[in-house]
């Protein structure tokens, strides 16, 4: 769904090994391919098998010259829908393959850079190293042990970051610990946003660490 957009870059296709064994694959350009919500791309190995699953053909839906046209109503749960593919076509026409590849590569590079900076900052640790444009970290001052208090400290850091408004982060649980997720991939993200994000995270963490000392 999300990572599928990275397959536009040849060097990132190792994660797709075995994809040829799938009957169908869905990815969401609205998540990481510069396309607004909602837009999904569905790749199908056998169109005929897919039609057998979706097709309904009562007498009033029989199409003349059905063998000579592509009847999309026989390949979806809905008989009709809006032209979602048009916005993706415009994105591809505007950016081109090389432009979209450059955007994905920038996001991956910025993600790795931000993770390195956080890893090298006292009081922080990386809990999952970057996978494409995503990683997680937590605030972990050396004087605090794992447990509810440390989880609460990170929950308060997430709240402080999101109330500050310079960036927006979410949380998750990783190996039983409360951690903070960083996902870089919006259409407007630029290189200097990485500097801003890092600086705000560190600045907002400082009073929380001082309070716990």
Q: What is the topological layout?
A:
Elements lengths: L23 E4 L1 H4 L8 E4 L2 H8 L30 H35 L4 E8 L2 E6 L8 H17 L5 E5 L2 E7 L7 H22 L1
Antiparallel strand pairs: 1-2, 3-4, 4-6, 5-6
Helix pairs in contact: 3-5, 4-5
Overall description:
The protein has 213 residues and is an alpha+beta fold. The protein has 2 domains: 3-96, 3-Layer(aba) Sandwich (Aspartate Aminotransferase, domain 2), CATH 3.40.640; 102-212, Aspartate Aminotransferase, domain 1. The chain is built from 5 helices and 6 strands. The strands form 2 sheets. Strands 3-4-6-5 form a 4-stranded antiparallel sheet. A two-stranded antiparallel ribbon has the order 1-2. A hairpin with a 2-residue loop joins β5 and β6. α3 packs across α5 (191-212) and α4 (148-164) crosses α5. The chain starts with 23 loop residues before the first strand and ends with a helix. The mean pLDDT is 90.
Key traits:
213 residues, alpha+beta, Aspartate Aminotransferase, domain 2, Aspartate Aminotransferase, domain 1, 2 domains, elongated
What would you say about this model in short?
40% of the residues lie in helices and 16% in strands. The protein has 213 residues and is α+β, with helices and mostly antiparallel strands.
Find the structural class using helix and strand composition: alpha+beta
Mean of residue pLDDT values? 90
Based on Cα principal axes, name the global outline: elongated
| Strands, total number | 6
Tally of individual helices = 5
Computed Rg:
23 Å
Strand order of the largest sheet: 3-4-6-5
State the name of the first-level CATH class of the largest domain: Alpha Beta
CATH H-level superfamily title of the largest domain? Aspartate Aminotransferase, domain 1
The ordered H/E elements are EHEHHEEHEEH
Task: Bin the strand percentage.
Answer: 15-25%
| Count of separate structural domains | 2
- In the CATH hierarchy, the architecture of the largest domain is Alpha-Beta Complex
- Low-confidence stretches are none
What kind of assembly state do the chains in view correspond to? single chain
From the N-terminal CA to the C-terminal CA, the straight-line distance is 43 Å
Q: Could you estimate the helical fraction of the residues in percent?
A: 40-55%
Largest sheet features: 4 strands, antiparallel
């Amino acid at each position: 769904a999300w990572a599928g957009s990275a397959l536009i870059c040849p060097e990132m296709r190792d994660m797709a090994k075995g994809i040829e064994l799938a009957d169908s694959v869905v990815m969401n350009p609205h998540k990481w391919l510069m396309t607004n919500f909602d837009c999904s791309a569905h790749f199908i190995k056998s169109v005929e098998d897919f039609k057998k699953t979706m097709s309904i053909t009562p007498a009033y839906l029989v199409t003349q010259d059905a063998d000579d046209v592509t009847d999309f109503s026989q390949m979806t749960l809905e008989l009709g829908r809006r032209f979602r593919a048009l916005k993706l076509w415009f994105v591809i026409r505007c950016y081109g393959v090389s432009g979209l590849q450059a955007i994905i590569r920038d996001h991956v590079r910025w993600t790795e850079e931000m993770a390195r900076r956080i890893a090298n900052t006292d009081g922080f640790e990386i809990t999952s190293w970057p996978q494409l444009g995503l990683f997680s970290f937590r605030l972990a001052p050396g004087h605090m042990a794992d447990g509810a208090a440390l989880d609460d400290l990170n929950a308060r850091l997430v709240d402080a970051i999101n109330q500050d408004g310079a960036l927006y982060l979410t949380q998750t649980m990783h190996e039983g610990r409360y951690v903070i997720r960083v996902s870089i991939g919006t259409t407007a993200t630029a290189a200097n946003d990485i500097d801003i994000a890092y600086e705000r995270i560190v600045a907002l963490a400082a009073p929380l660490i001082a309070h716990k000392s």
